[in-house]
Amino acid sequence: MAMQGISALMDFPHRVASAIRSAQESGALAPTVTESTVLADGGVDFSVRWVSSLTRKDEARRVATAPDFNPFLPYEPGLFVGELGPGHVALLNKFPVIANHALIVTRAFEAQLAPLNLADFSALAAAMASADWLAFYNGGELAGASQRHKHLQLAPLAADGSGRCPIEALLPATAPAGVATRLTALPFAHAFVALDASRFNQPGEAAAMMLDAWQAACAHAAVSCHAGQMAPYNLLLRRGWLLLVPRRAERWEGISINALGFAGSLFVKHRDDIERIRVAGPMRVLAAVAGSATRESPGRGLS
């Protein structure tokens, strides 16, 4: 039976876990093998993982270049998690590189480079009302998007129980909410906005707050929109903060970087890529695909 309204997935973590069990039994999920290494750089303990399933995902991405191919229309029933209001559904990622990885997908086709809107953030707020997971978005192919159909992504935080993702070691513990600014600790181009975590208890308020913060961050980082398409960017978001990163390239020396790279998690297809990143330094890799941080411009308040 279809669920209704913004509060439909208040038990989001439970529904994701249940959907994963069913998908594993049916074979809908592709198995993943990883090896993980921690590389410390710039005050962040980066997790760099070799992931066997990236090769299969790249194959799927090549198929997806066909003009009439869309894995979300229709979506695979075995990956269904639940409905998130009238315009979005929650699905499992068929090629998970992290545990409990979920997608928030528009029912009708919208381009991944189309601006995010209140409906998108309303669906995200419905999922995050009961789960302070990390939300992220790959805005376009240059930002690491493997599909052209608009989809946000959600993943749990560190499995070690710290409740943090690696990049939070450099984010301020307290900051004025609603002001887009640059953090001197981050060497790559970005815009940071602190959020009022208490507003996530009311999904409607949270959605409006996230939209305002996203718009302020886009303006601060000069991520423009022309003819209904955004310049490429990555977005990271938790209940307490939002980080937006403009993109200038998808890959560093053949290694694809998506939004999770700026959270402190990098994924590679070959084991020897880990050593290449260690030699270069993860921060240098991120600055290469995002551009170096520039002199801070005045913070912009939210409307």
Question: Can you offer a commentary on this structure?
Answer:
The chain is α+β, with helices and mostly antiparallel strands. It is built from 7 helices and 17 strands. It has helices spanning 12-26, 53-63, 118-128, 203-220, 259-263, 272-280, 282-290; strands spanning 34-41, 44-51, 80-84, 88-92, 102-106, 134-139, 151-155, 179-181, 191-194, 225-226, 229-230, 233-238, 241-246, 251-252, 255-256, 265-268, 300-301. It has a 10-stranded antiparallel β-sheet with strand order 3-4-5-7-6-12-13-9-8-17. It has a 3-stranded mixed β-sheet with strand order 1-2-16. Strands 10-11 form a two-stranded antiparallel sheet. A hairpin with a 2-residue loop joins β12 and β13. α3 crosses α4. The longest helix is centred in the C-terminal third of the chain and has 18 residues, at 203-220. It is globular, with a radius of gyration of 18 Å. The model is unreliable at 1-8 and 295-303 (pLDDT under 50).
SSE order in H/E notation? HEEHEEEHEEEEHEEEEEEHEHHE
Count all strands and give the number.
Answer: 17
Termini separation (Å)? 38 Å
Provide the low-confidence segments as ranges. 1-8, 295-303
Reported for the largest beta sheet, the result is: 10 strands, antiparallel
Question: Which strand order does the major sheet show?
Answer: 3-4-5-7-6-12-13-9-8-17
- Measured as a percent range, the helix fraction is 25-40%
**Residue-averaged pLDDT, rounded?**
88
Q: Radius of gyration in whole Å, from Cα?
A: 18 Å
Proportion of strand residues = 15-25%
H/I helix tally: 7
The secondary structure category is alpha+beta
Indicate the overall shape.
globular
